[in-house]
């Protein structure tokens, strides 16, 4: 009997009927399960599970296989993560599906979706607030620069720890928003009468007039001065503790880990204390 092979389906030519599909499914094989084979392993145990597979599941597995092949081809000519990073992310998802209770997994998915929605709403409200804000009275300009620094450290920390793409996208978008706020708190002016190297106009940067003419600037500076007396010694102590008692891949990772941990611990407290006198100014 002649057979016409089309991918994994074999057809019987006279009647154009196909034979039962035999699909080798290695989707659930994790990278950590693979072991090196050499002369010390002359005999290898092989465990084969033969079971029927529904058409829907077969389509899912076949789609994942095609996706991996397409991704590996695209990866060679793009800035996408490496194949190892993609496999690690896939293994993380597989382990979660295998080892996690289905009810807990469903709750985790729902919470993640709700968190993403609230995060988008927070971005939207933050942009809307600063876009419509005309006066800086009662707002801390220094906290804007602190947020830029904090978001920048978070981005570097996330990139250094190979987090998944969704989190990377979220923190980078948050950093771009914080950088955009700088334009709202500072005024930039080009001075063509004073050229740099007789070519480029000199850039003058000043605070917005609504910030300079109010008491906000005075209290902003006072809050930063008092907080620095407390936080800088704590930062030095935390650096020493992390250097002695914790393990790090290198100096760069140590700096990022210390900065991220310190900002995560004291950042919210710092911003709350920072803005407390400024809130009283706005209410008054």
Automatic annotation (TrEMBL):
Superkingdom of this protein's organism: Eukaryota
Keyword line: Membrane, Transmembrane, Transmembrane helix
A single Gene Ontology CC term: endomembrane system
Localisation: Membrane
InterPro entries registered for this protein in UniProt: CLPTM1 (IPR008429)
Annotated membrane topology: Multi-pass membrane protein
Pfam families: CLPTM1
Family of the protein in this entry: Belongs to the CLPTM1 family.
Protein name: Uncharacterized protein
Organism name: Schistosoma margrebowiei
């Amino acid at each position: 009997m002649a057979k016409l092979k089309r991918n994994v389906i074999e057809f019987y030519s006279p009647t154009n009927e196909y034979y039962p599909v035999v699909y080798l499914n290695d989707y659930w094989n994790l990278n950590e399960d693979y072991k090196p084979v050499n002369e010390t392993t002359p005999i290898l145990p092989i465990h084969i599970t033969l079971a029927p597979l529904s058409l829907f599941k077969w389509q899912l597995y076949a789609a994942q296989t095609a996706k991996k092949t397409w991704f590996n081809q695209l990866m060679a000519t793009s800035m996408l993560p490496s194949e190892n990073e993609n496999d690690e992310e896939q293994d993380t998802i597989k382990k979660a599906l295998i080892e996690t209770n289905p009810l807990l997994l469903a709750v985790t998915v729902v919470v993640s979706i709700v968190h993403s929605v609230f995060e988008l709403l927070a971005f939207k409200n933050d942009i809307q607030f600063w876009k419509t804000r005309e006066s800086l009275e009662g707002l801390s300009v220094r906290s804007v620069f602190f947020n830029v620094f904090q978001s920048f450290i978070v981005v570097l920390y996330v990139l250094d720890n190979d987090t998944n793409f969704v989190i990377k996208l979220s923190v980078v978008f948050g950093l771009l928003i914080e950088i955009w706020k700088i334009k709202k708190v500072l005024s930039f002016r080009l001075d063509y009468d004073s050229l740099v190297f007789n070519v480029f106009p000199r850039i003058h940067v000043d605070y917005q007039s609504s910030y300079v003419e109010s008491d906000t600037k005075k209290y902003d500076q006072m809050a930063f001065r008092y907080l620095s007396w407390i936080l800088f010694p704590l930062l030095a102590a935390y650096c020493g503790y992390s250097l002695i008692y914790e393990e790090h891949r290198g100096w760069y990772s140590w700096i990022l880990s210390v900065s991220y941990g310190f900002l995560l611990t004291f950042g919210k407290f710092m911003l709350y204390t920072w803005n407390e006198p400024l809130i009283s100014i706005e209410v008054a």
